Records
---
Amino acid sequence: MYGLIGKMMAATGKRDELLEALREGITGMPGCLAYVVAEDEGDPDAIWITEVWVDEASHRASLQLEGVRRAIERARPLIAGFGERFVTRPAFGVGLGSDGGMGLPN
Amino acid sequence: MYGLIGKMMAATGKRDELLEALREGITGMPGCLAYVVAEDEGDPDAIWITEVWVDEASHRASLQLEGVRRAIERARPLIAGFGERFVTRPAFGVGLGSDGGMGLPN
């Protein structure tokens, strides 16, 4: 599995709009086991995106999906920048869609 | 929803053992929508735990579950310390168990 944990900074006051722009892009992504978009509790302009993919190629391919490209276009003017970014190898978990979960090997 | 993103440092060379200790603790946690344990790609002793709960109370209650307490006991001697920790409010996502997902309000 391939994982990403990343912080995105919305333009001041635009976090809700940014969330809406992202919401529509994350359905129907092949190989996506988990994709959670969350507000940072301590920073009113920050969001965290945590992702689990079957492999890195699935993540890369998702960036070419029409729905994802449209969401990126909508989100772009609402993004002020990016914060921390961590690449991970998910080992196991709860809530990893139908392809993953406790039984999937590393 | 209530979310946590946290980095845990294994004692040198003990990451695999730490993962095994944690693996058994994370089943059957009421209110847990997602719980992913991942190796840090760039740091051989680090793991990331990303969690989504129905609310903060569910997370707090989980720490009293017998399975979780046993896992914490097993994990404790394998943990060298903790790194970054971010508290979040998950807004929506893919892979949020049966209680959550796209339709759940903030």
---
Amino acid sequence: MLPNPKLNLSGERFAVIYRIAGATEEEARQKAFDVAVEQTVEFPYELTPPAIQEAIVGRIEDAQPAGDGRWLFRISYAVESAGGELLQLLNVIFGNSSIKPGIRVESLELPDTILSLFPGPRFGVAGLREYLGVPTRPLLCTALKPQGLSADQLADLAYQFAVGGIDIIKDDHGLADQVTSPYIDRVAKCAEAVDRANRETGRKAIYMPNVTAPADRILRYGRLARELGAGGLLVSPGLAGFDSMRMLAEDDQIALPIMSHPAFLGPFVTHADNGISHFALFGQIMRLAGADATVYPNWGGRFSFAKAECAAIAAGSRVSMGSLKPIFPAPGGGMSLDRVPRMYEVYGQDVIFLIGGGLFKQGPDLVANCRTFLGMIS
Amino acid sequence: MLPNPKLNLSGERFAVIYRIAGATEEEARQKAFDVAVEQTVEFPYELTPPAIQEAIVGRIEDAQPAGDGRWLFRISYAVESAGGELLQLLNVIFGNSSIKPGIRVESLELPDTILSLFPGPRFGVAGLREYLGVPTRPLLCTALKPQGLSADQLADLAYQFAVGGIDIIKDDHGLADQVTSPYIDRVAKCAEAVDRANRETGRKAIYMPNVTAPADRILRYGRLARELGAGGLLVSPGLAGFDSMRMLAEDDQIALPIMSHPAFLGPFVTHADNGISHFALFGQIMRLAGADATVYPNWGGRFSFAKAECAAIAAGSRVSMGSLKPIFPAPGGGMSLDRVPRMYEVYGQDVIFLIGGGLFKQGPDLVANCRTFLGMIS
């Protein structure tokens, strides 16, 4: 009933490793085949024209037992299915299959044909180190909060953090364009405060405002941040969309480092049998989408990530991905100063320590607390 | 250590009902309090300035046992926390708490102050019926696929569907801007094919291309679709972001009905103890973000939604939300013609029946299959 189209494809494929649950390997293989069909033609296989069955439908390339009734299936897709777009790439990887229980994206294997479409992180680990003038030690980061403080009050905090030696002073991801500290007012004042501190200390701290802004304003707000003196941008791609972050990262008028925030992405990593692995989501995909640093909750804080999951994010931040630069893992989420030595041990040098409220708990003198923090890793 | 700001807020609140798991009510209440803090100040409560504790931190307004070690907590937030933006509203509702297991968003209670910021669906049920000239019966929808067919071949399918009496002919959500059927070429040809069929039949079918496009192109592609004769737009907000869909819905140059697709949103509804309820995600939030119809997998198809979950989506599509119009539930995902009578019974008249591959399985004559489909509900 359907014509058999003449397809003129390159033959190049990319692959996704899925972790699939099944009572038997046969059942898991059937689910893998359903993924291969669902993620491409989404059409009864037997009615699919032969040329499309051959070139477009996903191919099960490999299957490995993973224990406990789980298998790792490697499924490849035509690079043309992704259409050269990040969102469509993510759609092929997991669009509809995200709705089926027992299927998790473990990792991505992307050839240069696809990787070269996405510049990825503009700075990466080496670039951000050079930009900040910090050649070897871990970077220090904190967040401006709580919501409800005025722009002047947040700017005063930013000044103290910068004087105390924090490298990256970011907005809390809950600061948007509220009346208590409107975006433009806040960005102007906090950028100025950090700049003033830098002139006094001779160091280079940067201010990263949150630009998880409305779709019709996000690019303008990103550029405005640069004009107002911001030194980077914070984005929550779970809210704004991964492609909005990519757009900000690629914009040559902005040309600032980007830090991704995990807000609204929790359900992807809550259950080991569903969603996307920590490695792929907070490592590989954040890099594809242009983040120079990936924020996530460290083990042992207010959230529930395990130590191995955090190590997987760090691995995904530096795993070889063609020309895509390695990026900084930025563990946070209820960290305190006393945990720094152990984190340092686990993550090594190429890490951003993100401590928010914990910096305040140390004592009444914020500048002194920052110096303690800096002293622990210098 | 922190100044106590002078807050001049309206005192108006919006509320979220969370379903929270706990070994005891006390444990669940502690988790609810953590949500109230996490979703607002994300700061040690005891160090939060009193004015912010009072006005900004979420307030537990009510708690009800929900059986099986689950409680429903109603937490209210200052309307100012949402900053008048959809993404920040979603961020307050569930940003960081999405990363904590055992917390699910059940439903939203939004006052007119917030609802009036979001026009929501431009057409809604009544508007879409008027636009299509179908006053009472369920609407019929199908999808152009499989990926791999050329624009001409897809246009030929669109023509047959329109002649056969389908109301809404949408792109499969896997059609993007691939070389096999590039966006502009496909939209022009499919819109023309449907228009030609309409002139022959005297009916009004519409073509809805998929505009889940890159962030720097999505608005332009939406407008281009309108110029090329498309009658609506398909968007996957799980990929493009909810605010991109809102932007398309609000754009007066586009002014077309919008259908939302659930791609990439599966993990939010996979586990009853996490994520967002079907009611809130596919009903309330899709409406807030401007969808006129919400696509989701019906029970009994290729996916795993239960009948009660589908009924909850239908309820969320029409529950009172101030001036926001009710919208169409559009169940699909492996539906076949023989299931139409039972679905009709459950959903009533105000539903869009979405049948894709099932239309092809019926027999070799697509036009005849469409007429059978139409005959079942007229």
